[in-house]
Amino acid sequence: MDLDVFVTAHRAEWERLDSLLGRRRSLTGAEADELVALYQRTATHLSLIQSSAPDPQLTGRLSQLVARARSAVTGTRRASWRDVTRFLTCGFPAAVYRSRHWWVPTALVSTVVAALLGWWIGTHPDVQAVIAAPSELRQLTRPGGEYETYYSSHPAASFAAQVWTNNAEAAAICLVMGVFLGLPVLWILLLNMLNLGVGIGLMSSAGRLDTFLGLILPHGLLELTAVFVAAGTGLRLGWTVIDPGPRTRRIALAEEGRAAIGMAIGLALVLFVSGALEGFVTPSGLPTWARIGIGVAAELAFLTYVYVLGGRAVREGESGDLEEQERSATLPVAA
User: Fold this and answer.
1) Per-residue pLDDT tens digits for 260-276
2) Which end of the chain, C or N, has fewer beta carbons within 10 A?
3) Exposed, middle or buried, 60 (CB in 10 Å: 0-12/13-18/19+)?
4) CA-wise closest residue to 171 among 264, 262, 261, 253
């Protein structure tokens, strides 16, 4: 394509579009129709230039013009309670459901790793000696020791808020840092499973594994599930960098990235619930079976929410991304 000839042929249309945008609040009906038609043609012109004769200066100019025209044509909209309801009933559960082939294996593998680490630590006194001195280990694992008093060491409300903040930050890091081929996500997972494995190993070696599980399960089921969802989504985002599929890498990352950001908001709510359980239920005077029962009920409620609402939303075409009219315009690309 001869770029100079192309510009000469269409410059008048671009200037006319720019003129209409300058007085869009006082357009007649015919002029409004003309603006829409010019917007569509200019978007096509931009696509042709990008694919056939890319020129940075002209591309930048037309990109700004198309963006302004799109804003004028589509208008702006404010977030409403409808958006919140849609996100909670469709967008978030659909995004989690779509990522299940990543976070479910992540959960299974991570749980096995934590169990193996716990067995290794619990059956090897020499490994325990590396972790801490015998007196420190007794202080950790004895009845009324640090593993038990940890959950009641601070007021419940402030402890729950602190736990929620820490876990939400870890989940957000998994989601955002996944773009670096998922490597930071694997490191965060390893640290979490190592901490869990150390607790399992030390308490089992002291013959108090049942006490440890009674303290972990009430909040840990939901908390770890949220971490696994975040990690699996981060790994999926990292794989998108390697293999975007039929989409261009830019479009694929934009779509998966928007879904990941929405996931971060949804998981913050899930972790708020797990933080409340850790602050108020885990250290409570309820019987162990009751505390674990509450944790299991919260976990089953979340999984039902994901697989029932999320599965139905995905079958209806929901992807967890923004609604189509809220996304940036996607221009055609050369095959």
Assistant:
1) 778 888 999 999 999 99
2) C
3) exposed
4) 264
